[in-house]
Structure formats: structure tokens, C-alpha cells
């Protein structure tokens, strides 16, 4: 970090919006959005009116982005940050992480099903969603569009 770009105030060193955004790997619009959502505190202002963020803001933004990569929504991140700000032990993060693991497992199961279906389409040589000419087409889309259920299609 270039020292000549750091704002100095009564409480120590502060960073401008662009510096915080660059160091945290986000854009300035994201930074402002997180302010509006209350994920990060509204910064002090320099004598010239520039936003003056404490250096810890970069760490907080990095934590927020890491939590998002783990699958937490911004609302969930806000709740977890709020719980952490109260500074008392809570099983909340662990419980939410376990719930997130269950969500991930469900998504993996769904993706596995989708992959299996697509593999069957490729193997069968399907050539159309509505008028496939391959024998034993695994795609019942035309039948479903005609109002028949997969069970009715299987009985044909």
C-alpha cells in the first residue's frame, strides 16, 4: 500500500474508497452497496469530503466475500456479522454452516441427476428437444408438452 495515498486523521490512518475496493478485490459500487446494507460501517469523512475507511474494512470485505464463496447469502452474512459483533459465543455459525452443507449436498445430488440425464442424451444421440429421431429417446419433453405425465409416457 502506498503510504502517500493513505489519509491521516485523529484516529490514525484511513483509506479512500478506491484503495479499499482495490485491496479487497471489489468494485466501488460493491463497497457502497455494502454500506447501504449495513454490512460495513459508514465511513468518516476527510476534511475534503472523501470517505475515510479504517484499514480493518479491507479485512471485513475479504471475510464477506469469502462467506459468499462458501454459499452464504448477503442476508445470512449480515446476520452472522451481527451475531459476531455482539461478542458472545454462539453456535449460530456452526449451525448455519451445517445447514449450508445440507444445501450443498442437495445441489450436488441435483447436479448429479442432471449430469446423468445429459449423459443419457449424448449416449442416445438425441437431436431435438421436440422431435428427436433417436431410438429410445430419454427426453420426454414432447410428451410432457402434450400434457402427458412421465408415468403415462412410460406406459405407452
Automatic annotation (TrEMBL):
Full protein name: MerR family transcriptional regulator
The record's listing under Pfam families reads: MerR_1 (PF13411)
What is the top-level taxon of the source organism?
Bacteria
Does Flavoprotein show up as a keyword for this record? no
Q: Which InterPro entries match?
A: DNA-bd_dom_put_sf, MerR-type_HTH_dom, MerR_fam
Q: Which UniProt keywords apply?
A: DNA-binding, Repressor, Transcription, Transcription regulation
HTH merR-type domain span: 14-83
Species assigned in the record? Microbispora maris
Q: PROSITE patterns attached here?
A: HTH_MERR_1 (PS00552), HTH_MERR_2 (PS50937)
Tagged with keyword Transcription regulation: yes
Amino acid at each position: 500500500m502506498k503510504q502517500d495515498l493513505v489519509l491521516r486523521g485523529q484516529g490514525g490512518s484511513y483509506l479512500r474508497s478506491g484503495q479499499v475496493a482495490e485491496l479487497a478485490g471489489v468494485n466501488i459500487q460493491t463497497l457502497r452497496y455494502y454500506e447501504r446494507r449495513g454490512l460495513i460501517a459508514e465511513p468518516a469523512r476527510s476534511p475534503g469530503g472523501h470517505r475515510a475507511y479504517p484499514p480493518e474494512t479491507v479485512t471485513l470485505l475479504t471475510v464477506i466475500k469469502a462467506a459468499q464463496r462458501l454459499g452464504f447469502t448477503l442476508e445470512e452474512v449480515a446476520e452472522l456479522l451481527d451475531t459476531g459483533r455482539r461478542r458472545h459465543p454462539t453456535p449460530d455459525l456452526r449451525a448455519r454452516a451445517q445447514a449450508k452443507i445440507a444445501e450443498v449436498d442437495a445441489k450436488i445430488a441435483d447436479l448429479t441427476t442432471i449430469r446423468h440425464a445429459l449423459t443419457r442424451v449424448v449416449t442416445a444421440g438425441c437431436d431435438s428437444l421436440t422431435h428427436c429421431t433417436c431410438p429410445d429417446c430419454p427426453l420426454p419433453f414432447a410428451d410432457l408438452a402434450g400434457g402427458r405425465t412421465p408415468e403415462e409416457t412410460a406406459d405407452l
